[in-house]
Structures are given as structure tokens and as C-alpha cells.
Amino acid sequence: MTSARSNARHCWVAVRAILLLTAVLGIVYPFAITIVGQVGFSAQANGSLVSENGTVIGSALIGQSFTDSDGAPLPEWFQSRPSAAGAGYDAAASSGSNWGPENHDLISAISERRSSIAAFEGASAESIPADALTASASGLDPQISPAYARLQVPRVAAARGLSESQVHALVESKLAARDLGYLGEPTVNVLQLNLALTHLGG
Amino acid sequence: MDAWLVALQAATVALVLALIYRPLGDYMALIYTGTRDLRIERGFYRLIGVDARSAQTWQSYLRSVLAISLVGVVLLYSLQRLQTVLPYALGLPAIPQGVSFNTAISFVTNTNWQSYSPDVTMGYSVQLVGLVVQNFVSAAVGLCVAIALMRAFAAVRSGTIGNFWVDLTRGILRLLLPLSVLAAVVLIASGVIQNLTGFTTITTLTGASQSLPGGPVASQEAIKILGTNGGGFFNANSAHPFENPTAFTSLLQVVLMLAIPFSLARTFGTLVGDRKQGYAIVGTMASIFVISLTALTLFETLGTGTAPQLAGAAMEGKETRFGIGASTLYATSTTLTSTGAVNSMHDSFTALGGLMPMFNMMLGEVAPGGVGSGIYGMLILAIIAVFVAGLLVGRTPEYLGKKLGPREIKLASLYILVTPTLVLAGTALSFAIPAVRADVEGTSIWNPGLHGLSEVLYAFTSASNNNGSAFAGLTANTPWFNAALGSAMLLGRFIPIVLVLALAGTLAAQDRVPATAGTLPTNRPQFVGLLVGVTIIIVGLTYFPVLALGPLAEGLQ
Asked: Which of B10, B92, B271, B537 is least surrounded, with the fewest CB atoms within 10 Å of its CB?
């Protein structure tokens, strides 16, 4: 067999192989998994949606902005981390800032956030935790550190006319420990915390 | 973050890998040495027209590898260009030529470099019928090449190294597909989405609107990780909560990406008839892994650099649920394999922290490396190590009973020269050609100064080593980067494969010489030390100058 004919034969086998594999791996496999997911784990497979009075208000896994239309933080809500996804928590444009450690834009953003958060919370600049000053990898981080949640308690309580101890107790009840006790970090889910807040009244 | 918690999660990974090392390694050995075909496999061979009983010479085996890759590139390119006529396109336009070219090569070469933002580029049809299929096939091809090399070491005066089509089919149907099904179900149960509903617009708690994405994510995530592919369904990759919702799924993904590459050392030991050889290889891989993980965790925890110091911790580009410990474990695993998925943004790591993933890839991704490609890379380094030791004591080097003559050493030496050449030439050309330099500096580089050089260096390191992770601030969707990185991926994948299969051909044709008192034992801790040293020194000397200009300079300034 000549080399050219041999190459052609190899390619013809490859074409048939790819087409068959595409049917199995590209169509049967994902659709079978979709059926398993929809039947067996419907809530997770559809995005762990959170509803209030029958209306979907978000996903427990996707962070939200709690700001007014100009991006100014609303004092009656616990605030999420800074976000680099679109204009902030744009779930159709997940992204980190990708700013490097010596990038001047990042350095000035951190300084600016520190002073504006300190003013907003009425707290000292040194008390602000790192997650409040930095953007997450996805831009959709649904969680904040327990330290950042606690920092926001007095301001939220004041804005809602609730007692600090009441709001503090709510935060403590919403703390999520590390997975299996030792994986990752302890967190507070901001959407679920804010949703619970609306049930406190005020 | 407590240091002992980080150590505990790494210990968990080590324990799981140790538990599956034997069964998975032996199972893989069985897959590739068994003589019985499953019924579905017999049907498959009939339909594609191959005789499963015939073995191929190395040249024929190589032609099959190249044929399936060529067909894969053409098909994947066409699917992207024709996106508008495919179902579930989500109303997205056809993908432009440059991105289609780059992506087709990227997924066929097991790189999964993404110069586009998937959220707004790829409809479900291209993701499933195009990308998922290549996630399986490219991983299986890597396995084929690795197994062919292992067979060659075990063979005695053989003209053939196996049947590619049989190896490919078995790797997919008996290994990758069943494990992916299992992994996908666990991922869904843990919160990864799997639906076909497209975007859903909801009203948030404050009354704003948010567009939540859907998609068949879990099925893709499973093989993305298991096949050390790494191409994310979303732009944020495994940092996206729909791809990697919890610290548990993050750990699971780490285990999945390391499972096959580490266990292949067992397969190797079993196939060559001396399991201690496998332990020496896995010992080398594990040593490098532990050193690298410790260094990265240390750098990120210290958080040196202006911005991390100002913020109080290196949390820019990291998710709250992962923190620093789960981020550094993932980053080390993804760059010491050929995965390239990320759960944190490497571009925002501290300067020396960002150097580590780069250095991991520069090692050639051999600790444990990609599915298949890791172990054949490590075996090449083992040959170099034996050769170096042979020079020191003045004996003809031999490895596993095979004499390492001029031809073998030439092939191995060429292998280790390929990627450094591509990385350094690509980086140099990006700044040496005036028009390209203007475009790279004006359009592509996101972080100015030293960090900008690191972004370009990282891109060529990632592409040439078929990793796929990025210093993602770099805008890579330009004619220069689409073309140059596309070429780097292609050459970085297939030149080494040609050399490995040629080596397999010569080794298989040799007799096996019995070990004598003068033979260097390659199954003892002493050899592990030698191999670790050779791996790090060869790389260190090659890349040290350019690292000194980028991340080292940034870290020490």
C-alpha cells in the first residue's frame, strides 16, 4: 500500500471513529446525565434556586449586589464582596479582576474600598477583613467571611431599627462551618442571610 | 487559616490516591493488556473498519494518532463556524475564525486554552458535541501514547507496539466514560448544574435583575477534570460556583485530576514486570508535588507584595469558600498535571506565588502530569537521569533492561528541548517583532511592567505544555496570540508524541539485557533523588533567566 493511500485509510477510519464517538460522548452521555440530574437531583441540577413567596429571587450559589442603581451600597442589607463580573455580580459575565499584586489600579482600589467601607460601617479602617477589600475569582462569590458579616451587624441593625443582638444572633445562626469540618473556610451566604433578615421584620 | 487544616486536606488527597493506586493502576493495566473485546467494542471496530487483532508498527500507530487528531481539529473548527445552524446555540453568533482555529487545536491537544469567554461565546451544541467529545478523545490519545511506550519497555524484539484503535476505544469505554458518569452524578448532587434551560432572568432581593446561566455543566466538568483537560464551561472556570460550588467539590476535583496520572505509575510497574519501578516513579512525582505545594502555600499565606499587604491577605482572585489553602492545592494540582482548570485567579497571586504554577508547567508537567502525557514525560526524564548517571560512572546506560544508545538518547534529548524552545521563542517573538510588540503591549497585556512579561511568558508556557491555565488578564483573542499560541499547542503536543512513539519503536525492537552488578538500580530511593534532581535542574537552568526577568524580579523588588 502506498503511503498516500495508507494515510487516506487512517483518516477514513478516524472520521468514522469520531462520528461514532460524538454520538456516544457528545449526545448520549450528556443527555443521560441530564436526565439523571433532573430526576434525581432536580434542585441542584437547576441551580439551587432560592424562592420567596413562590417567586425565584436568586440562586444560593450565585452572589448578588445589594446596591442601588448607581452602585452605592444599601445600608439595610449585608453587602457582598467587590465583584469584577461585568458591572458587579453579572452572572452572564463571570470573571476575576486579574489585577497583579503590584498593579496600581488594584492598590488604589483597595485603599479606596478600605476608607469607604470604614465610613459606611462606622468602623476603624484596620478592622476591615481582606475579603471585603478584594474581588473574588468568579466575581459571583455568594459568600463573605464571618468577620465581614459581623462587621456589618451594627449598621444593618441601625438601618432596620433592630437591636444589634438580634441581628448578631441571626448572623451566628447563618454561619456555615468548613465542609466536613476542615475543608475550605467558614462562610456566611449573603443572599440567605439577607433573606432571613427580611423575616425578622423591621 | 490554620496550617494544620491545609496539611490535613493535602493528607486527605494523599490518602485517597494511595488507596486507589493499586486497584486503578492494575485495572488500567488489565484494560490495555486484556485480549477479550466487549460486545460493544466489537461492533465499534466493525463500524470503523479496523481489525482489533492486528498490531501496528510505531509509524502506523503514529499515523492513527495524527489522523484522529486532524479529523478532530477539522470537525471542531467546522462546528464552531456553523454554530448558528446548530440547536441550543442560545442565539449566539458563529465563532470567528481566529478563535475557532485556536480552540479547535486547544481542545484536540488536551490543552483547553480558552482565548474566548465561554459564557457569551459557546452554545450548548458546540460545548457538547465539540468540546466534550475532544475532552474524552484527547485524554484517551495521551493514554494510548503512554501505554505504547510502556509496552515497548516490556517487549522483546518486537516490531509492533499495539493497536491504536483498540487502545483508544478501551480507554474511553472502560475507563474515562464510566468514571465520568460517576463523577458527574456526585458533582450534581453537590450542586453543579445540569440542565438545558439557557439563561433565566430573575429579580433579586433588591429588585434588580440578574441573568442566571444554565447548561449541561456537570457532564462536562467531570471529564474536564478527569481527563486533565481544564476547559471551563464558564469564564471563571472552576472558581464559578456552578462548576465548583463547595470546598468538598474542590477537593473532589483535585482527586479526580490526580487519580489517573498517579495510578499510571502502578500500571507502568505492572506492565514492565517490576512494581518497584512504579513506586520509584510515583515517589518522584509525589516528592516534587509536596515541595511545590508547600512553596505555593507558603508564598500565598505570607502574602507579600503591595496589594496583598494592603488588603491584609492575598484574597484578590480567591473565593471565600476556598480561602488560601484550597486555592493553592488546586493551583498546584492543575499545573503539575496538564489540567489548567483554576479555582482562583493565578494572575492575582503574589509574585512568587504566581511563579510556582509557571514553574510547575515548565517542569514539563510530570508530577504527575496529564493523563498519559505525564508518565511518558517522566519516563523520558528517567532515561535522561540514567544517562547522566551512566556518564558519571562511565558505563553504557540501560533502563529496564533496554540499552540506551545514541538513538534513544537523541530522541529523549530532542523531547526535552521541544517545549523550552517553543516557550522561549514564542515569548521572545512577542516582544521582538515591532508590530507584534505594539499589539501585545497595547492590547493584550493587562498588568503593566514586569507582571506583563509574566503574563506573556505564562501564556506560552501554558500553551506549549498543553496546560491551558492562564494569567488571565492577558487578552489572548488577538490575531498574534490566536495564531502563535495555536501553533505552540500543536507543536508542543505532537512533536513530543512523534518522539515518544519513535522511541517506543526502537525500544520494542531491542532485546532485554539482564541486569548486572554494574546496572544502576532504578527502583530505589537513590534513583528517586536523582530523578527529582535532574527534573528540577534541567528546568531550572533552562528557564531561570526569563523567570528572573518576570516573576522573580517582581517578587524581589
From this structure: B537
Q: How far is A142 from chain B (nearest CA, A)?
A: 8
B308 → closest Cβ in A41, A55, A101: A101
ipTM confidence: 0.97
CB half-sphere exposure, B85, CA atoms < 13 A:
4
Instruction: Examine the pLDDT at B4 and tell me if it is beyond 60.
Output: yes
Question: Residue B218, by phi and psi: left (phi above 0), alpha (psi -120 to 50) or beta?
Answer: alpha
Q: Using the beta-carbon criterion (under 8 Å), do A198 and B205 form an inter-chain contact?
A: yes
CB contact under 8 A, B451 and A103: yes
Cell of B528: 528517586
pLDDT-derived band at B412 (thresholds 50, 70, 90) equals: very high
Residue B356 domain-assigned (yes or no): no
Confidence of residue A2 (pLDDT cuts 50, 70, 90): low
Mean pLDDT of chain A: 95
* Interchain CB distance below 8 Å, B195 and A89: no
Whether B89 shows a pLDDT value over 70: the answer reads yes
Q: Which of A 56-95 lie inside 8 A of B, CB atoms?
A: 56-59, 61-69, 74, 77, 81, 85, 89-95
Within-domain flag for B200: no
Contact check, Cβ <8 Å, A141/B245? no
Domain range for B471: 371-556
Total domains in the fold of chain A: 2
Please tell me whether residues A35 and A74 are part of one structural domain: no
Give the structural domain span for A182.
Answer: 49-199
Which residues are CB-contacts of B540 (< 8 A; sequence separation ≥ 6)?
Answer: none
Output the pLDDT for position B11.
97
Residue A49 distance to chain B (closest CA, Å)? 10
Q: Are residues A7 and A106 in the same domain?
A: no
The x, y and z cell numbers of residue B28, run together, are 488500567
Question: Which of B41, B320, B345, B453 would best serve as a mutation to test chain A binding (most A beta carbons within 10 A)?
Answer: B320
- A174: chain B residues, CB-CB within 8 Å: none
Nearest-by-Cβ selection for B172 from A21, A102, A111: A21
| Closest to B228 measured CA to CA, from B22, B32, B467, B24 | B467
Euclidean distance between the first and final Cα of chain B, in Å?
A: 27
Longest Cα separation, chain B: 80
Task: Give residue B339's pLDDT.
Answer: 96
